[in-house]
Design brief:
alpha/beta, nine-stranded mixed sheet, 9 strands
């Protein structure tokens, strides 16, 4: 693979760097479930790590995937995909990092915990990111339609010398390279993602909607019609 490029498509990437490996998925929320099933459908061996009393265990089995205790997934996996909420990641890594093996790859789909938390990751581990630009339902549905959701890939630590190849193969296996895969960094992905959420989605857009509604009311238009224009139609 030519890893000097900045944008990758399906034809640029091979699955060779992931098909021979065991991928461990930690968690089984929307994003984890989507990635796990896309990986499985791409021919990867996938195991899911959950606590023994997790209600998601039955969902994993129903999807035809193997579920194990978290420590076993850490021990058995070549690639560990950490797909749990950011605030739970430091405790997870602290508790289970002793089970990591030389040359394993630790994969994240958001860079927050690497950028802002002092994670205790062994030195002999690859640290990479594959961050799809969409929620789990979209990632799964687009894959099943034969397409995919674009993703950012990054390498924080390249212990094996093959970390970027692994990241790109993973991105292909979840369907992202059917759209496009962009080279980034953990810092860039994290800070631009926070900007999009805080400045645009929960900042500027709500303010624009509210102020537009006020303008229409001030000009004498019906509150009901104004609400439909500024709130309801935007939702649809």
């Amino acid at each position: 693979m030519n890893i000097s490029k900045k944008i990758f498509f399906d034809s640029d990437i091979t699955l060779d760097h992931i098909l021979s490996k065991t991928v461990g998925i930690i968690g089984y929320g929307n994003q984890a479930r989507a990635q796990a099933n896309n990986l499985k459908d791409s021919g990867c061996r996938v195991v899911v790590g959950l606590k023994s009393k997790s209600p998601s265990r039955e969902k994993v089995k129903k999807d035809g995937l193997e579920v194990l205790e978290i420590d076993e997934v850490f021990k058995q996996s070549d690639i560990l995909s950490i797909l749990i909420p950011d605030n739970n990641i430091p405790q997870l890594i602290s508790e289970f990092n002793r089970f990591m093996n030389d040359g394993q790859t630790l994969l994240f789909s958001h860079g927050y915990s690497i950028v802002y938390e002092n994670l205790k990751i062994p030195e002999n581990i690859n640290v990479i990111m594959v961050a799809p630009s969409g929620g789990g339902n979209i990632v799964r549905n687009e894959y099943k339609k034969g397409f995919g959701v674009p993703a950012l890939v990054a390498v924080e630590k390249d212990y094996s010398g093959k970390a970027m190849n692994i990241a790109l193969s993973y991105a292909k296996a979840i369907g992202s390279s059917r759209a496009a895969v962009f080279l980034s960094t953990f810092k860039e992905e994290t800070e631009t993602d926070l900007f999009g959420e805080q400045v645009i989605l929960t900042g500027s857009i709500p303010l624009i909607i509210i102020e537009s509604y006020k303008v229409l009311l001030e000009e004498g238009y019906s509150p009901i019609v104004s609400w439909f224009v500024c709130f309801y139609e935007l939702k649809t």
